[in-house]
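One record is kept unedited as follows:
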Amino acid sequence: MLILMAGLPGCGKTTLAHRLAAALNAVVLSKDVLRHTLFPPHLVEYSVEQDDFVVDLLLRTAGYMWSKNSNQTVILDGRTFSKQSQRQQVIDFAQRQNQPARVVECVCSERVAKARLAKIDAGHPAGNRDPALYEAVKARWQEIPDPKILVRTDGEVDVDEVISRLSNQS
């Protein structure tokens, strides 16, 4: 299974991805982590071109993992997936790999997201996370149609309930 984590910056995608991974024995493939592993600081770009390049590598990695273990759950994290074409690319890839794809959209209040982004998070590899990024992504956001699993992340998330919804979605 491929779980695509979507949502505006600061809405808790990475936190939820890691909690789901622990509960599902899944692998989190993160665009932000891979970008900062591949590129030295002076070559890191927060551009669509570099994002697309890194996501392509993540998908190739997922395909390789499934070639070794088709039951491996992969969680794709680190991109907001603000555009339908970005989400469709991942869903189409999963289908070609004979893997079910699930979209988990994390949402929270703007106040909560911006407060999270205003904090300096030394543990997060993306260096462009700030309230201005939230506004920029929100301005170009394309609504995610069903089927999706909508998760409110303002407070504590019931991971077992999210897993139940992942299992029950067809």
